[in-house]
Design goal:
alpha+beta, seven-stranded mixed β-sheet, magnesium ion binding
Length: 344
């Protein structure tokens, strides 16, 4: 029986050494060490041996079982390592190959226009101010010479939250807040860009939410000629050095006198075409001298201080500058539209 066990050991170790398959290795384990394996079959005959031989054969059987088990485990580790190395070879990545380019993002067209306008006015000494989009009725209307029941309020088509809270209809409240903050004894030179909201039906030229940039300059001896000079620089920097401007009388409750500013048409250069509807001019913004009532309510003495204000829509400016014919294009996030302006 001892010779049989030794022979099984040699046979098993030879088979283990020859195999290169992990499944076959499992088959060898079952064939020699399983409940119905060769070693178990031999040990079933131990009952016929003399009592004194049984411990010796048992020790030999344990040694054979341990030797085969150890050989199988070592071989299994070797095969696992070989399989891993082969997998790594098959999945090798050549890091010297050029990577796939990731498209770069960029600023939205409106963001670019707003930034361009901000930089332009900062260069002329203006500071950029911001304010809340949920505003009080006082700062949105009353502080701007629009008292309760003023007919001009109907033009704003306001989104009211309560009787005293609303979504601001323009960025002018930022101007009123800034003047109130300076307590009437400090000059103001600022622009205030931001979103505004009005109850309007969305179409190619209107939106219930849009962007506005308003400017304010209050100091001693500020004149209409200062306003015209600032706006002339603005038009030439933004639309081209050959652009001309004109101011037409208009009406705004918070300025007196009030004007509309037009720029000469870039297509026909003032001769008249379909873009400017034959006039040679395109309306671009509203402006005027700050109304004395607005100065007084902000704490400024209108006998000492004067000022001018202006307001423009970046969407309209972008539409004129880049030939966009539908304001809704700015809010659809259509990459095909944005790529035209190299924004992504």
């Amino acid at each position: 029986m001892k010779k049989q066990l030794e022979a099984l050991k040699a046979e098993a170790l030879a088979r283990i050494a020859e195999t290169n398959d992990r499944k076959e290795l499992q088959t060898i384990r079952v064939a020699y060490l399983g409940k119905k394996g060769s070693i178990t079959g031999i040990l079933k005959g131990m009952g016929k041996l003399p009592k004194e031989e049984r411990p010796v054969i048992g020790e030999v059987a344990n040694h054979v079982r341990e030797s085969i088990t150890e050989a199988i485990e070592q071989k299994n580790e070797t095969l696992e390592q070989q399989a891993l190395e082969q997998q790594l070879m098959n999945e090798t990545i050549d890091v010297t190959l050029p990577g796939r380019p990731v498209p770069k993002g960029g600023a939205h067209l409106l963001t670019k226009i707003v930034k361009e306008i901000e930089d332009l006015f900062i260069g002329m000494g203006f500071e950029v101010r911001e304010g809340p989009e949920v505003e009080t009725d006082y700062y949105n209307f009353e502080a701007l010479n629009l008292p309760k029941h003023h007919p001009a309020r109907d033009m704003q088509d306001t989104f009211y939250i309560t009787n005293e809270l609303l979504l601001r209809t323009h960025t002018s409240p930022v101007q009123a807040r800034t003047m109130r903050e300076y307590e009437g004894n400090k000059s103001v030179k600022m622009i205030c860009p931001g979103k505004v909201y009005r109850r309007d039906t969305d179409d190619a030229t209107h939106s219930h939410q849009f962007t506005q940039i308003e400017g304010l300059y209050v100091d001693k001896d500020v004149r209409m000629s200062d306003l015209k000079g600032i706006l002339d620089v603005f038009a030439k920097k933004l639309f081209g050095i050959d652009r001309e401007i004109r101011l037409r009388p208009s009406f705004f409750p918070f300025t007196e006198p009030s004007v509309e500013m037009d720029i000469s048409c870039k297509v026909c250069h003032g001769k008249g075409c379909s873009v400017c509807k034959g006039t040679g001019w395109i309306e671009i913004l509203g402006a005027g001298m700050v109304h004395p009532n607005v100065l007084s309510m902000a704490g400024y003495d209108p006998e000492v201080y004067t000022g001018f204000a202006f307001g423009m829509g970046p969407e309209r400016i972008a539409m004129l500058k880049y030939g966009v014919d539908d304001i809704r294009q700015f809010y659809t996030n259509d990459k095909r539209f944005l790529k035209q302006f190299h924004t992504i």
